[in-house]
Amino acid sequence: MIQYNYKLNWTAGDQGFEGKLNKILQALCMRPASKQANAIFIQLSFHNMGVEVAEKVREKIREFLPRAVVAGMTEMLFNPQGTTSYVRINCAFFQKAKVRMLEYDGVPEDFGKLGLEMGQKVAAMHDVRAAMVLGVMAPKLSKFIDNFVVGNENLVVFGGIAGMYEEAIEDAALNSTLFSLDPGNKDANQFIYGSSLMRHGIVVVLFSGESLSVRGDYTLGWNPLGKEMTITETVGHTGISKLDDMPAVDIYRHYLKVKPDEHFLQNIVEFPLVIDRDGCLIARVPPGFDEEGRIFFTGDVRIGERVRLSYAVQEDFLHETELASEKMSQFAPEALYLNVCGTREMFLQDKAQLETIYYQRSASQLNACSGTGEIYYYQGQGGILNCALVAVGFREGHSKSALTVYEAPAEMEDNAPVLLSARMAAFLDAVTRELEESNRELRDMAMETEKASIDKYRFLSSASRDIAEPLQKVMEMERRVLQESNEPHIKAYAAEGRKAGEIVYSIIQRLFDFLEMEAGNFKLNEGEYRLDHLLEELEGKVPSVLYGDELRIRQILLNLLSNGLKYTLEGSVTLQLNAEKTGAAETALTARVKDTGVGMTDEQQAELQNILELNVDKKVSTLADTGIGISVSQRLLKMMGSGLKISSKLGEGSEVSFVLKQRVLSWVPLRQGETAATEKCKEEKQTISPEELAENWEALREIADACERESLDYMLENLEGYILPEREAGLLLELRTAAQEENWALIQKLVQ
User: Which backbone phi and psi does 459 adopt, to 5 degrees?
Assistant: First the structure.
């Protein structure tokens, strides 16, 4: 088997088009494989070409390669700038395999019945390995696929959908939205090809042979995030009226702050809805909506199905495709067919070609086609897809098929498209708030339950981890927005979202600590630490380097400070820290948090003291929802051999303190220690030569252009070991700040 791929551009009035077409077909005829082939298959892909030119191409193929099986479809592109017209001619010569075709011209009266009839014919054939299905988008096309695969579960069914017709939905807005994404997506130029050109119809190409091996891959790349919603009302086969009994379009208002307007599809395309259907993750992006808040798709949706929004990061998205292409490369295909959704191009933008390039490493003459939907079905999984990449490889030999379904591992005007980073920030903010509410409910449930059963702790631990895992993804997405965006207001939104996520995560971490303590599994993590990492201002001659659990001490101080702030509407909250030498290598740290807040009555202090003595688990009314923070702090201090002391007067404020013994690794007072370290650093520095400085600065430019963080940190640390000229020393300080913020635009400017 051997495959050849050609692309022939066309413009109106091009007198040389026919001559170029003749040369391509003549070259195919002269190939030795043409004369030796048992079967020839040609797939045609058209864009912005009228039916007259398309039929001329088909007639020329009959003239030069009369025994070839020919099938094709028009491509749907999402490039608003492009009006390119072309035809792709992809020819595969099969040495032993057979290629046959079934087709139906027109709109079937019963799609399901037609699918069953064709499927039965295929099931009765011998050694059919794969079926390419091409169709015009129709609301009931999924019925055809569902019935066609009955009895053909071990068949690799793949293909694509071209265009659509008006009966697809009640509102013609869907057609206008899709077709407006590229000037070449003209309604008059939408068709499929079998033995003849079809405005409406279905073409099925069958590949059979005892020695024919096939591998099929379905790659998505988007990951579910946020809560599940149930489709509670549908319209036809491809529309959703209600999600959780609310207008379906409201999901985009809530999570993405996107209004249903002329930019609707561009604003939501990076966040497909995903459905887990029979263990296969299927994406849906609605290119259309109506005034009733209904959304419409190019694939089927079913009442009762549960959907979630999803997201993707470009680097991880492309990595998943690369992994799939490597698996295909191991299969060593002799012919390869890709069906790639245009939404992937909208998401990847200038990196979109990488997906095809990955697969071209194993099949340089592959055919890649993009329609209004992809088809993939194997062993009970799949159907009509969106946002997907489907790759099917063929090889003539005796190896067995290896088939897999890959799941997902300036201020703008009101009517302007919303930037991806802004939509990301809005989405993360909404998800974070939902996670906060869910976590508050879990915490209240735990605090109100009097039974201290092990089942309660297992439940809370499992539920909290279920919240923490998506929250970590949320915070990672915020970090990427901060890293990749160059717009100050977008970075500000992302910073606020990340801050909110960190607050929620700290609540979850406190709950984890509480549960670990109850289970007796909690352990301190002691090590060397500097007090200036805990606090910015210290009192007294505090040793500069100590030994203990820095993270837990920080947590205790934050708990006490936040508690003081909560109950101090006016006045101040102060932290005092003193150290008293108690041995040759030991000190007693005394921490006091004073506030001028509401204070407590004697009864309230007694209730709190009961908590501090660890006699009860329930929350204290005087502390409202900070009971876990006080309880966890007391338990941590008990493990360190200390405990909280509280004194308070109603209307005057409170003081919370503790004394903690710590090992001392350096008795040099903190500020003196810093001064000594600074002087020592200056003494060790050497003067850099002009040549060395020029070499280092040139290296910085290359690193900045490549945005390599680790290399940048190494270079900056290296330069700090030298005495630099005044100008470069100033730039080094600015570079340090920009590196901490990961502001690559500023870094690139500074090194120039």
Answer: -65, -50
